[in-house]
Amino acid sequence: MDNCDSLFSQANDEFVNENYQSAIDLFTKAIAANKTKSEYFTNRAHAYFKLNEYEKAIEDSENSILLNPHSIKAFIRKGICQFELKRYQEALDTFQEGQKLESNNKTVELWLDSCREKLGLPKEQKQQNSVPNSSTQDVNPETSVESATSAVTPTPAPHRTKYDWYQTQTFTVITVLEKNVNKDDIQVDYGDKTFKLVAKLHNGEEYIMQLNLANAVVPAECQVKVTPLKIEVKLKKKEDIHWKHLESSADNTINTPYASVSKDVKESKPLSHFRNWEKFVKEVTEEEKNEKPEGDAALNHLFQQIYADGNDDVKRAMVKSYVESSGTVLSTNWNEVGEKAVDVKPPSGMEYKNWEA
């Protein structure tokens, strides 16, 4: 593996572990080693977004688009950051450009509707399928009324829990956006190339996800994490390879973004109401800000907050000390670390080694 790819992989792992500033530092090193890979900029943009550094995220997204004009992720991340900065017309223009790449992308449609609402514009109307003209077709008079009725009557679309996935070199991560799920109400079964999640939602309904995975995983090293906002499943890859798809080729031919359920599993009843995704996104964003992390996550959050609130000297000191000490020193005093290199200081009883690739 090239050095830049190794840095990129490390950065993705740091992102998965919610060490966003560390991820940014590693993404930056990867970019310095190879400025031609659009995904380096796209992923750093995501890390900047997590730290509310929207302007930097927009700049990275634009660089990614210059390198790969077909990167729908870059358009989405740029548009979301413009929306967060209340530049709704710019965000609308960005999402419209993204829609030209993928006309049926549900995430783009959601944000387009949000932008139009903020700008006081009507939502885009979907084109309805027209009923065939009877004058141009042979119609059985006994079935014509029934056929016409079935042609124009839409099938109600059931509510489905939204989920997304991404990957690092070692893990594939599935995020299910459901709030206030009790960890005791979740059952997860891992197979070599299968995955099943059964969760009782806060409204009493049952959610089932069952996937035939595109590649093998290590069941013993898979794990699930539940927060007030989501369910996050980390699947340990059996091989350190890039997954082109989450599901196997047989499932991909169905072309559905939702998990199919086997016949011997009772499917949960669809919700009778429509989820307002704009409201949900706002609630998630607000609750993420108010959520109180614990343990190592609390310490990382504290460092991130110090960095976000600090002046330029504080930020420079934190970055310089962390990078030069290989993560063993974190200083906010630029006068102390600015004039000389920061030595590696491993914890007591441990020895620092510089491993060769």
TrEMBL record:
Keywords: TPR repeat. Residues 127-153 have a biased composition (Polar residues). Signal peptide: none annotated. Residues 158-247 form the CS domain. TPR repeats lie at residues 38-71, 72-105. InterPro entries: CS_dom, HSP20-like_chaperone, SGS_dom, Sgt1-like, TPR-like_helical_dom_sf, TPR_rpt. The keyword Repressor does not apply. Transmembrane segments: none annotated. GO terms for cellular component: cytoplasm. One of its GO terms (molecular function) is protein-folding chaperone binding. Residues 122-159 are annotated as: Disordered. The keyword S-adenosyl-L-methionine does not apply. Residues 264-357 form the SGS domain. Belongs to the SGT1 family. This is Protein SGT1 homolog isoform X2. It comes from Octopus sinensis (East Asian common octopus).
